């Protein structure tokens, strides 16, 4: 007889009856259930019933990304090499690159055949023309920038034409970016972040298929960035819910390859004056992103003061090294599997985000909801 065979199984109702008895007349809902900002009623316990959950399978390896701000080309190259020496294997360069000579200096001694290189600046097509045989992305989010500034980089038609040209002319890099990080760092709820990011992706599909690009190619060229906050279990469930919904969206476009590239970045909204406490915050945020299933992760430095930035960047990288090399987070397939609380949160987020996404679509889609201010008005509902 096995160890657990000697014990009777307890049903969900059995647990409820026992808890109700122990409460000695106190109201179950008022005493033990709390409602999150997302409108999710969090129960005191979960088990495998009565719901069935969608299983998620994913090898949990991820890339360690560091952001390099280009103030001078040579300095950016120096910082990039320092980051790579410290264990990063993915880089994001933020800032303009004037010509091929500057690009060559920027990438000097960097093995671009094995290191992911990502670029963010306001001249994506110019940057694209300087790239040869690299892996990574042009991380400019045309629709996201329109949401933030309420303006186009040029005009709507020219911006989308430019994006289509970049998408058609490249092979190894992602050219379509959905920056969900904006919602995290500006006070939107997790449900809003999921829904608005995915409806933004749907808008990209609509705009680019109109330009003659196949849905399969669009799906292969798109990447997502999501901020990760301190709500540990909710952030794990968020990434899982995003993947569930993305699979469903791709089904609507008859795309069979369900690959989804998610980059996560620790949020800036909970940063406090106690710098050491920020290290702990960053660690739990990183754990949420990894357990949720991100493909790459940027842990922002816990201290941005000029004198300590190199040390802070090293600590940020080392958080990920510890989770890889000592905690073995990258050796487990789908580490959240079987955690009924996380599965229940995932299920509820999927349903609530899908409902909001449909509301956006009934109003004409992402661009229409930017221009009628629907998306920005939603933030008032979380404050």
Question: What report would you give on this structure?
Answer:
This protein has 383 residues and is of the alpha/beta class. The radius of gyration is 22 Å and the shape is globular. The model has no long low-confidence stretch (mean pLDDT 90). The protein starts with 11 loop residues before the first helix and ends in a 5-residue tail after the last helix. The chain has helices at residues 12-23, 28-32, 73-85, 100-106, 124-130, 142-149, 156-169, 181-185, 190-209, 215-221, 232-252, 275-292, 309-326, 340-362, 366-371, 374-378, and strands at residues 34-35, 41-42, 63-69, 90-94, 116-120, 136-138, 173-174, 176-179, 222-228, 262-266, 296-298. Helix 11 runs parallel beside helix 12 (275-292). A nine-stranded parallel beta sheet has the order 7-6-5-4-3-11-10-9-8. It has a two-stranded antiparallel sheet with strand order 1-2. The protein is built from 16 helices and eleven strands. The chain has a domain at 139-381: TIM Barrel. The longest helix is centred in the C-terminal third of the chain and has 23 residues, at 340-362.
């Amino acid at each position: 007889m096995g160890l657990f065979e000697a014990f009777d199984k307890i049903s969900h109702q059995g647990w409820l009856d026992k808890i109700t008895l122990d409460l000695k007349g106190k109201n179950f809902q008022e005493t033990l259930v709390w409602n999150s900002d997302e409108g999710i009623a969090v129960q005191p316990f979960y088990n495998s019933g009565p719901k069935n959950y969608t299983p998620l399978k994913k090898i949990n390896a991820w890339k360690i990304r560091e952001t390099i701000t280009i103030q001078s080309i040579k300095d950016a190259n120096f910082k990039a090499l320092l980051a790579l020496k410290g264990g990063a294997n993915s880089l994001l360069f933020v800032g303009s690159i004037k010509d091929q000579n500057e690009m060559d200096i920027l990438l000097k001694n960097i093995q671009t055949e094995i290191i992911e290189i990502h670029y963010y600046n306001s001249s994506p097509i110019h940057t694209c023309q300087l790239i040869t045989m690299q892996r990574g992305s042009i991380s400019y989010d045309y629709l996201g920038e329109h949401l933030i500034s309420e303006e186009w980089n040029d005009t709507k038609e020219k911006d989308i034409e430019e994006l289509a040209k970049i998408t058609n002319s490249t092979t190894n890099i992602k050219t379509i970016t959905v920056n969900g990080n904006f919602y995290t760092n500006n006070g939107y709820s997790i449900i809003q972040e999921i829904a608005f990011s995915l409806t933004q992706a749907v808008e990209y599909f609509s705009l680019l298929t109109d330009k003659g690009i196949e849905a399969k190619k669009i799906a292969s060229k798109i990447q997502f960035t999501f901020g990760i906050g301190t709500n540990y279990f909710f952030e794990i469930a968020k990434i899982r819910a995003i993947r569930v919904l993305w699979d469903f969206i791709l089904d609507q476009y008859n795309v069979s390859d369900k690959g989804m590239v998610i980059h996560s970045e620790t949020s800036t909204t909970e940063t406090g004056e106690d710098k050491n406490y920020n290290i702990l915050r960053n660690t739990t945020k990183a754990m949420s992103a990894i357990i949720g299933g991100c493909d790459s992760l940027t842990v922002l430095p816990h201290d941005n003061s000029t004198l300590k930035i190199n040390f802070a960047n090293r600590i940020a990288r080392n958080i990920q090294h510890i989770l890889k090399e000592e905690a073995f987070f990258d050796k487990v397939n789908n580490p959240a599997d079987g955690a009924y609380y996380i599965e229940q949160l995932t299920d509820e987020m999927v349903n609530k985000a899908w409902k909001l996404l449909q509301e956006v679509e009934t109003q004409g889609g992402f661009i229409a909801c930017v221009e009628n201010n629907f998306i920005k008005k939603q933030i008032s509902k979380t404050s």
